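Interim report, section 4.2 (structural modelling).
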Amino acid sequence: MSTVHPENETLGRSERIVLNLYLISTLVVFLLMMLFGLLMRMAQGNWISVPPTIFYQLMTAHGAGMVGTVGLASSAVMWFFLRKYVHLHVSMFAANYALFVLGAIAILSAVFVGGYAGAWTFLYPLPVHSLGIWSVNAAALFMLGYLLIGVGFLLFYLDAMLAIIRVYGNLGRGLGLPWLFRGEIDKSHPPTVVASTMVVITNSLGILAGAVVLVMCLINAYIPSIVLNALLVKNLIYFFGHVFINASIYMAVIAVYELLPRFSGRRWGASRPFLWAWAATTVMVLIVYPHHLMMDYVMPHWMLVMGQIVSYTSGLPVFAVTAYGALTNVYHSGIRWSMPAKLVMLSMFGWAAGIVPAIVDGTISVNAVMHNTQWVPGHFHFYLLLGVLPMVLALMFHVIDGHARSTGRLSFPLYVIGGLIVVGSFLEAGRVSAPRRFAVHLPQWLAYDRLGALGAILVIVAMLLFTVHIIVGLLRSSGNVAPAYATG
Amino acid sequence: MIRQDVVWLITLIGIGLVTLVFVYVISGAGGTADSTQVQTRAYAIRRWWLLALVVFGIGVTYASLRPFPIPDQQTQSQGAQIVDVVGHQWFWELSRHQVNAGTPVEFHVTSADVNHGFAIYGLNDRIVTQTQAMPGFTNRLVYTFTQPGKYRVLCLEYCGVAHHVMAIDFEVVPATREMP
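Predicted structure of the assembly:
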């Protein structure tokens, strides 16, 4: 018999308040950003009329909002479980939230007041070269918003880094490096610590690169005589963006390692392949980003080859260790399919299946016909919508367990079917070369847009049901202690 | 079969395999078996499919990189038709609008302002090739058209609020036809 709610997961009053702020805010923002996504698909499908200026503002807000909020929600997953093994300061967790809110206000103001529509990727020099559509100040406010959010994450990571070092001696031990080649592995070494260590190392570097490029762009915005190298800026932006979104997946996957064994009744501990997978992923996530630059032919070609090969090898830890580990953990286990368990299993499917089109697109010759088509949102929505978001939702349903039970009889299948339609319509549109980030579509692409909009409606209805259940549950469980609850 | 359809087929097979494995395991999640036995068997199976995946990956890597899909950026193709391309917000400037089929065309692609994406759409409205147009850099794209007809260039890198209207057509004429 394993405990679903161990004592060391009990939340103190201040911890619960901050966690509730994270969870409720992220749910509301996810819903809002999904609505923006739906509006864009309906506009592309000619079902509604949205002026291009507004479309690209929605697109910018959707991209920045989703990436940032996935990061924030995933950091809540990491915080919730990591604090059982090391001492994290709730003040740093709260500071991350406060800075995120300030950053989000800056970003939303830049977009919807200042009219900034330079996409979440802020590729130089578009933010300062809008041909009068938005001001330099609006672009600067957008970038300042990113900086505030980045500082918040860095504070959270530094706190986690120090906490891991205090308990395990150094980050290498947190990652389990001493056991890679020899020695008996400490089976009690938590996968959560391994994943968290990987994230604090890689995403601190990613965010620092992001901060550097943001400061460079801000300087250029107000001193245009300081001209930047467009290729260098692109490299820094894609390094930052790639590491940030991947770190979000690696934070969120902690929910899988922690929760699945509780429902299957089987241990899922560190093993040598597991530690190798995370050590390799630490390196690969830092060097794979050139796969975003395959159509920049002036890039050193060895970097593009590296991007292709590492895109392939990056899939191995996901397939062979995490997804396969989850399947092994569940097979003939007599698992109880509660909402967190269902969501965790969905997330494993979404991640494993979603990286297939991503890996394929990591081939230079494929990228030449798929780059910046809807194939790209097709694959990243696959592992974000059906991978990461279910991981985050699993934590949320876990936290409210016992306060607002939801069987998910309606919402869960709606979410899965809607999600598959959303990603399927994107991928199919990518196959016929429909570009991404187009406000207006040609007649031959409209069917995919409309199908995608229908899928988005299903996802939003499901998400609305999830949100109501979770918020009611969180507000009901506002006391100090989540009930210890056992299952077999 | 064009490249996009091959990619789609490979992707469908990959996703289909993943789905089958998940369906198999989830449908067999009931009942109870000894955890160690399940693990031992599963890890023995993993060795084989992991090995198969690695061998497949090495094969694909080799096949897809030889010949290298991106032309050497330093040397000019012998006898190629040169087309200078400059991206502007929000129009394309091409040094010529007609090229011959059967002879390599070398596009020298750059931008006068922000990043653009120079994507060539073929006669079936599918992308045949692309590169980025970047300020301060010139990407050299080499492509040999085999089918005469009207081709369209779309911008595939978001470049501002009229990004979607940034298009231009050019013609590929049969190899024998006299160029104007």
